[in-house]
Predict the structure.
Amino acid sequence: SACRACLASDADGFEEPDPGERRAAFGAFLARASRVFAPSADTAGRIRDVYPNLAVTVRPRVEPERSVRPTALQRPGRVRRVAVLGGISLPEGGLLLQALASDARKRDLPLRFSIVGFSDPTLTGGLERAGVTETGRYSTDDPTLDRVARAALQIAETGRHWEDDEILDLVTQVSADLVLMPSIWPETYAYALSLALRTGLPVAAFDLGEPAERLRADPDGHLLPYALATDPAACNDRLLALDIPAGGRVATPIRAATSDGLMRDYYALTT
């Protein structure tokens, strides 16, 4: 009933199938699967809430080893600059980011927010008026390809994702002290978090979804109570109170979360 009520008020003009029919269709599909994997315990729990009799195995996403940028020394007495990575829309916390910037301006807080990337066009004007800056679309953006296809093409051609290096360079250019992930929905996997951890900066996110699981295990991860998502002033106060070590973080690589045999070890398939 909650899903139906939400669709009735916010379907964005798209005709969506009935939530009950959708759940029944996916339930039948999953019931025929020999194995069901989820990329995080949070995701597995949400699947089990809908399909309580379904066996779900947690398999964290396989990632290659990634280098980490050395952090700059904290600059005492200056404004704390907060970077938000990627394309920002409503689910990624666009309106919350606007509210944070508006509160910081209203109370004259030493906080500045920069999107290292771009925002949804419906949000750009409000974010700009609130004082949020944007670096803009990345130089590698190809409007003829979606982001997944573009990334796959880049990796196939070069063995790496070109966009990653550009984003990391831009984080340095905006003199960020902290990376914030303002997403207000429980993401199943956040590639932006993988990039955020490579910056060598402290990373803050709400205690929600897969990002919370990874940050809980990271020494520079800071989890914010989800209640702060509806209290911009308290959220800003928490961001200012975060302890950022003066020496920054040692730039040690993030070890690979891979297996020798993807099909055998990750998917448990023998053929």
